[in-house]
């Protein structure tokens, strides 16, 4: 899939910009703080309704503006074109597809964007929440039905947590239906996550062999957020007293995690910062490849500040892989990355939130 047009209003320093994008490589160059990452952020928002940067959602809205909006024309590999719109004035996102208001899930399901950026090493070195998010968005983008199970799970979790925090402990009959619902949704989420990781593994093997051959073979282990020995509903019942003391549910799909270990680096601490970044990049590219295999088209790939994240050999390897896959790439840098010298690319200069096409 390709973004052909992108218009952004009121996003960080982007007051109002519109660009016609190339189906191949698009590069946004400019000084620090010019607004390059914000352009990638706009594309990412269309596929996630959240930013890849940490921080409050309110920070996305330009200071002094009352509305943030992103419009795009997206062409799928089968030549189908759709118009995507995402806006936010108050606290909620509003989504439009071909001019009609739609549920957010429908919009973000239409567009898939994978982004490698300076915070991506957190996928390997950061909190479990980031790894679950990676996994769940990956599953969602290939199986849209996953979203309804995930929402059912979140609702049951919220209900159980509020019962746990009630001033006097509620009766068993109040807990039981939510625990049953929670357990059923968790089992389903778990099965989809397992199945996704099984499909992801071979893609990851190829990617890691290319980017990090020195680390040897790897293992990808998924740990569900409860014990394998008993069913989850029973474990939740037995854990209730402890959960009341803690004020939240300590077992379930929201406690799962996964980890990669390498033959030559069995502990995470054995990886250099650069190796963490490359591992995270391999995970993101594996996700993009799996998406391409299942949906018949590559997602859009964003590479934020590539030249300062990777050495030249790895930059060249990534760019060649994406060019060979015919993926649309949006890339930023303070200058044109050396890995792109001599390659076809549309180049934009970004300055104080304004975009000018250079090449
Ligand atoms: N809510 C906001 N309203 C107005 N401006 C904002 C807001 N949030 C961030 N900014 C500004 O927008 C710019 C963000 O730019 P962005 O991160 O896209 O820059 P960049 O070109 O990628 O920079 P770098 O090369 O330093 O990563 C910064 O100048 C920042 O101060």
TrEMBL record:
<dbReference type="GO" id="GO:0005524">
    <property type="term" value="F:ATP binding"/>
</dbReference>
<dbReference type="InterPro" id="IPR001238">
    <property type="entry name" value="DNA-binding_RecF"/>
</dbReference>
<dbReference type="GO" id="GO:0006302">
    <property type="term" value="P:double-strand break repair"/>
</dbReference>
<keyword id="KW-0742">SOS response</keyword>
<keyword id="KW-0547">Nucleotide-binding</keyword>
<comment type="function">
    <text>The RecF protein is involved in DNA metabolism; it is required for DNA replication and normal SOS inducibility. RecF binds preferentially to single-stranded, linear DNA. It also seems to bind ATP.</text>
</comment>
<dbReference type="InterPro" id="IPR027417">
    <property type="entry name" value="P-loop_NTPase"/>
</dbReference>
<dbReference type="GO" id="GO:0003697">
    <property type="term" value="F:single-stranded DNA binding"/>
</dbReference>
<dbReference type="InterPro" id="IPR018078">
    <property type="entry name" value="DNA-binding_RecF_CS"/>
</dbReference>
<dbReference type="InterPro" id="IPR042174">
    <property type="entry name" value="RecF_2"/>
</dbReference>
<dbReference type="GO" id="GO:0000731">
    <property type="term" value="P:DNA synthesis involved in DNA repair"/>
</dbReference>
<dbReference type="Pfam" id="PF02463">
    <property type="entry name" value="SMC_N"/>
</dbReference>
<keyword id="KW-0235">DNA replication</keyword>
<feature type="binding site">
    <location>
        <begin position="30"/>
        <end position="37"/>
    </location>
    <ligand>
        <name>ATP</name>
    </ligand>
</feature>
<keyword id="KW-0067">ATP-binding</keyword>
<keyword id="KW-0234">DNA repair</keyword>
<feature type="domain" description="RecF/RecN/SMC N-terminal">
    <location>
        <begin position="3"/>
        <end position="332"/>
    </location>
</feature>
<dbReference type="GO" id="GO:0005737">
    <property type="term" value="C:cytoplasm"/>
</dbReference>
<protein>
    <recommendedName>
        <fullName>DNA replication and repair protein RecF</fullName>
    </recommendedName>
</protein>
<keyword id="KW-0238">DNA-binding</keyword>
<comment type="similarity">
    <text>Belongs to the RecF family.</text>
</comment>
<keyword id="KW-0227">DNA damage</keyword>
<keyword id="KW-0963">Cytoplasm</keyword>
<dbReference type="InterPro" id="IPR003395">
    <property type="entry name" value="RecF/RecN/SMC_N"/>
</dbReference>
<dbReference type="GO" id="GO:0006260">
    <property type="term" value="P:DNA replication"/>
</dbReference>
<dbReference type="GO" id="GO:0009432">
    <property type="term" value="P:SOS response"/>
</dbReference>
């Amino acid at each position: 899939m390709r973004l052909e047009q992108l218009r952004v209003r009121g996003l960080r320093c982007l007051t109002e910009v519109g660009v016609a994008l190339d189906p191949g490589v698009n590069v946004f160059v400019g000084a620090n703080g010019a607004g390059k990452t914000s352009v990638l952020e706009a594309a990412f928002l269309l596929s996630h309704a959240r930013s890849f940067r940490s921080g409050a959602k309110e920070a996305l809205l330009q200071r002094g503006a009352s509305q943030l909006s992103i419009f795009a024309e997206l062409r799928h590999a089968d030549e189908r074109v759709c118009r995507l719109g995402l806006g936010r004035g108050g606290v909620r996102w509003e989504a439009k597809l071909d001019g009609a208001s739609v549920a957010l899930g429908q919009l973000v399901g239409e567009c898939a964007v994978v982004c490698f950026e300076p915070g991506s090493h957190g996928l390997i070195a950061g909190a479990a929440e980031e790894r679950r998010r990676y996994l769940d968005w990956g599953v969602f983008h290939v199986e849209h039905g996953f979203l309804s199970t995930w929402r059912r799970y979140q609702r049951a979790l919220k209900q159980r947590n509020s019962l746990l925090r009630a001033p006097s402990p509620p009766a068993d009959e109040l807990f039981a239906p939510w625990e049953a619902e929670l357990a059923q949704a968790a089992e389903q989420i778990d099965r989809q996550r397992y199945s996704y990781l099984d499909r992801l593994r071979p893609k990851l093997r190829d990617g890691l062999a290319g980017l990090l051959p020195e680390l040897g073979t790897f293992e990808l282990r998924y740990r569900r957020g409860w014990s394998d020995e008993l069913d989850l509903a029973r474990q939740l019942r037995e854990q209730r007293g402890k959960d009341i003391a803690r004020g939240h549910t300590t077992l379930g799909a929201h406690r799962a995690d996964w980890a990669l270990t390498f033959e030559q680096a069995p502990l995470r601490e054995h990886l250099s910062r650069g190796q963490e970044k490359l591992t995270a990049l391999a995970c993101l590219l594996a996700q993009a490849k799996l998406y391409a295999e299942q949906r018949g088209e590559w997602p859009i790939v964003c590479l934020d500040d590539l030249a300062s994240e990777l050495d030249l050999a790895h930059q060249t390897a990534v760019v060649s892989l994406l060019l060979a896959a015919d993926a649309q790439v949006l890339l930023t840098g303070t200058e044109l990355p050396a890995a792109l010298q001599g390659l076809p690319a549309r180049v934009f200069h970004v300055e104080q939130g304004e975009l000018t096409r250079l090449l």
